[in-house]
Each structure stands twice: as structure tokens, then as C-alpha cells.
Amino acid sequence: MKSYKIALVKGDGIGPEIIDEAVKVLDAVASCCKLDFSYTEALMGGCAYDITGDPLPEETITVSLNSDAVLFGAIGGTKWDNLPREKRPESGLLRFRKELGVYANLRPAIVYDELINASSLKPTVIKGVNLMVVRELIGGIYFGEPKGRTEDKGWNTMVYTRDEIVRIAHQAFKIAMTRSKRVCSIDKANVLDVSQLWREVVTEVSKGYPEVKLSHMYVDNAAMQLIRDPKQFDVMLTGNIFGDILSDEASMLCGSIGLLPSASIGDKIGVYEPIHGSAPDIAGQGIANPIATISSASMMLRYAFGEIAAANRIDAAIKRALSEGYRTQDLAQFDAKEVCSTSEMGSIIANYIQR
Ligand code: NAD
User: Which of these three, 252, 276, 297, is where a domain ends?
Assistant: First the structure.
């Protein structure tokens, strides 16, 4: 039996509710696939600030680095919005990613046939969409210096070094080799110097992957093309802010932000998390969709542990729950046979795994 240590960072808002369902599903898959998971909880976000005065206590980094992977819910909420920037939950998350060195954020967007009517786009446009956004996560304008604020002026700096671009580009090309061998690199090279470097370096790295077809696209065009014809994309390689925006846009191809998982990987351990936030508007009501987090747990099995059969089992159980017509509230008006709570959805998926 193989054993894995998982750090659970539940966070704020719906974070605890959705992580609990992912754990339920992991326990189900463990019993079927002869795996053993041990969990250690650690605090981050507003809940950490309330208890320790710091949105990212040192212990959370220690627990995470001593684990094989981190499963993370979400942080944030209006309660903490007026704190000084470094005390806010979001600062804790940015610091967490930087400390763990998770420079590559992988965000798959797959349209389930069962939810074809849930997208705001026509079924002919979205049927069969299966793309992967590879977003640089710990560089670019969210981290660049100088940054600052006066009464009448605010400024941030978009910076990328050659090394940062090289490592994220390698990730994108390696992933493309396992898919349909197409990478579209998204930048704003017609305006930004940093994007000109990005384009040059991505082109250089591509020479090491002659089987992969590389194309380049400006980010404004990419935002438009993603809606016009999303099936043209396989791997979309991009920087931090462009990837943040494009991957949320891609999520709506799929019908609900509550469906989309992500993996943040680097040279140490990976962080597996839904792409959505802490959804304070629905927290505590038992109506959040846990599928994004359960899919993130599947990505953890696949990318961190190489447990492909177990990951496939989770993915199949999610698909089965959807094809049987089970829907959480966010998808209730789309071909639902039964509307279920967060916890019921977790149990249904766990049951399909065990059958
Ligand atoms: P959000 O993603 O939390 O919510 C946006 C909308 O999507 C809301 O209407 C919400 O109810 C809905 N939603 C989100 N997840 C859902 C789910 N699983 N099931 C059903 N509906 C879901 O974004 P927001 O409202 O802009 O931000 C709320 C807080 O989350 C803020 O404090 C923000 O800073 C934080 N945030 C955290 C992360 C993170 O932890 N990675 C990411 C984004 C935002």
C-alpha cells in the first residue's frame, strides 16, 4: 500500500465545505486503489489572521513542505477587506505560492457533454472543448517592483526574466507533448517590452520540442478567440495576469466556475486548488459546487503522486454523477434530475467510486 501525506489548507468561506467533500472522495478512492492518505490541517487566509495575526503563519509553510502535496480550498472575504495589504488573506496566498515556488499554474477547461446547455455559448461552439491554460504564477505584474500608491497615483510593474520564461515554457511544451502537441503563447508583444522578451524566449525553448506546433497570439485577440472558437486551442501558455483573466473566461465555457480545478507546480511540492474564490455570498449554506475541488484532488493524484488509475476513477465518478443528472445549485437549471447539496454531491461521487 502506498502512503501519501497531504496538507489540507481549507481557508475561508466555502473552503472548509468543499475540502471536506474532496477528502470524502479521496478516502473512497484510497479504499478502492489500495492507497493510504494522511492529512494535516494548516491555516491560511482570514481564518489564520483571526487566530495568529498573520494570514500565512510560518507553521503552514512548514506543514506544507513536509507533505507530499497541498490540497487548498480558498481564502478571502469582506470581513478582512479593510486590513492593510500585507495582512489581507490574498497577500497570504501570494506569499504561500512564492514560498513554495509553484511557478506553473495548470488550469484545464473541459466541457462535459452533460453540461453542454450550461454554457452561455452555443453547443456547436463548445462541444468537445478540452484546453489547458498554463499560467506563470509567481512573477509578472502581481509581484514586480516597483509598486506603490499615493493619494493620486498607483503603479505596478510587469517584469519577467529569461529564466522565469524558460521554466514556464518548458512546462507548457512538456504538457503539450502529452496532449495534441499544440502550444499557443499569449502576450502583448505589440506594446510591451516584457512581452517581446516573452515571445523571443518561448520561441527559443520551442526548438527543443520540434513535434510541438507553436503559435503566438496577442492577449486581446486571445480573449476574443476563446469565445469565438475555443476548440482552436490546446495548450495556452501565458503570464500571470493574462492567465488569470483568460482562465476565468475559459471557465465560463464550461458552465460554472464551481467545476474548474487547478494544479500549481514547481520544483518542490504542488498546490491543488479550485480556480474559484471563497464565495462568501454562498458560504455556510451547503450549496457550493465541490466538483472543482474534487477534480483538483484528482489532479493531485495524477501530477503529484502519479496515481493515474485513481485519478481516472475520480474523473469517471464526476462524469457519472453529472450524466445521472445530479446538479448543485449553480447548475440547477441545466438538465438537472436532482438538485443536491455540497455534501450530497460529495457522497454521490464517493459512492460511484466505490461501486
Ligand atoms: P468567487 O470565485 O469567490 O465567487 C464568484 C461567484 O462565483 C460568486 O457568485 C460565487 O458564489 C460563485 N462561486 C464560486 N465558487 C463556487 C462554487 N464552488 N459553487 C458555486 N458557486 C461558486 O470570487 P469573488 O466573489 O470575486 O471573491 C470572493 C473572495 O474570494 C474575495 O475575497 C477574493 O479575494 C477571494 N478569492 C480567492 C481566491 C483563492 O483563494 N484562490 C481566488 C479568487 C478570489
Answer: 252
Cα 11 to middle of ligand 1, angstroms? 12
Q: Which residues of 208-231 are buried (b: 16+ CB within 10 A; e: fewer)?
A: ebeebebebbbbeebbebbeeebe
In terms of residue numbers, what domain contains 225?
A: 130-252
Model-wide pTM > 0.85: yes
Query: CA-CA distance, 284 to 27, in Å (whole number)?
Result: 23
Our mutation pick for probing the ligand 1 site, out of 276, 287, 333, counting the most ligand atoms within 8 A of Cβ, is 276
Quote the pLDDT of residue 282. 98
Q: Which amino acids are annotated catalytic?
A: 142, 188, 220, 244, 248
Domain boundary pick from 205, 233, 252: 252
Domain of 81: which CATH number? 3.40.718.10
In a mutational test of the pocket of ligand 1, which residue from 90, 96, 278, 344 has the highest number of ligand atoms less than 8 Å from its CB? 278
Reply yes or no on whether the pLDDT at 141 is more than 90.
yes
pLDDT in tens, 297-342: 999 999 999 999 999 999 999 999 999 999 999 999 988 899 999 9
